[in-house]
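Changelog note: in this version the structure field was regenerated for every chain. One regenerated record is shown below for reference.
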Amino acid sequence: MSESVRRVLAGWVPDWPVVAVLGREPEPQCLAAVTERGRILAASGAARAAGVRGGQKLRSAQALVADLEVFDRDPDLEVQAFEPVADAVGALAAHLEVVRPGLLALAAGGAARFHGGEEALAERVMDAVEAMGHPCRVGIADGLFAARLAARVQQIVPVGASARFLAPYPVAELGEPRLADLLGRLGLATIGQFAALPTASVADRFGQAGVLAHRLARGLEARPVVARPPGADLTAEQRFDEPVLLAEPLVFTARALAERLHEHLAAAGLACERVDVEVECADGTTASRTWRHEGVLSVGAVAERVRWQLQAWQQRDLFDEASGGVVALRLVPDGLVKDPGRQLSLEDGDQEARARAERAVARVQAILGHSAPVTVDLAGGRAPGDRVVHTPWGDAHQERRADGPWPGRLPAPSPTHLPAQPAAVRLLDAGGHDVEVSARAEVRSAPARLVLPGGVSRVVAWAGPWPEQERWWDPEQARRTARMQVVVDDGRALLLAVTGGRWIIEGDYDT
């Protein structure tokens, strides 16, 4: 079996989540963005033209575009909007995989021969997506990783040329921030330079994560696919005595079914990168969808994808009274790889108590979604909001060192409360003019009054400013911020921040 499968990757332009939220293509002048955990996930074309970028902090984007329309990410809505598009593309190939809402993968071999070549297949995929009213980019290459990068530039990479295509890209594209940082400090800036290292040396120096990234850099799949054990039935199935007409009962079943699936895989020493979600209705009709993960699917990841798919199918009335309801739900693993396992230390504590907690959180995730229960960590950062990191339960924790050097970091104490939506205010001097901060981080006039949404307060004490300059090397995303602490006449102590001449309340202190 070849280690790299020829893949077609169809992806939407960066404003796809905006399209899903609005339910239509945004107007040319629509200033809209979708956020996730306080950062910009996607923005409309007009918002991007105004300087809004993916990964940007929400308050930075609002400082650039005052009337930016902001939406919270809704994965369920994305899947529902995306499902008809997946059906349209799925009609072109025998096997289609959903990487995430807005990103599809399919094997190029048989589909390309049927449609008259890879270029013809790419055109048909784009036509199918654009017929649904969405812009699309298509890339074809050996392996999913190379195809994803090829889709950005709408390129067909020749067979066997994926490693050469990947060579100029920065190592950050490998998706391992710590590894990319280390490689950069070692002078290995590009994927090609990393790929040229001997595999044994990479394993000795960078461990398992380095080996997986090194395979991607060489144009291979991260993990070699292994054959299904002879006679092994790894499918997890649940049949229902009474047909089920709603998605909610199926979601509860899906979590237990995902755990059963992983028990089957663990017994065989395997993990899976893809899972087929299948339902069988009372009238004999069936439906299935393959979901893929750019890693190894955990129990939580499987359960979340099943929930997305079931709710999308219910939205389309797939298992309504006409079908008689669902009589069976199946999870079929595909893309089998060797289980990387988990090594516990002697300091891991009470494993039974931890297992009970994990099961309880897993039930919450099955109901509310994977990102609902979170753990809170303190990490490195300059602004107070940067230091509080919410990580979905079970995901890798933040690696930014809290004790590292952070020039411009606000001195202690930190604010006790950070508003979800910073309020815009005006900081005035005695003459009624706006207080400005110079390029040398000096106030041009002393603050005297603070114009708040509920009225005007007198400033009785202030400290600062503390300057912060971010991404100074990128003219398009460079940002200067200054922060000040003020105490007003009603006793409140506030943290203010100014960017581009606009003041906001970034936090408040207990007094």
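Spot check on this record: Residues 423-509 form one domain. The first strand starts at residue 6 and ends at 11.
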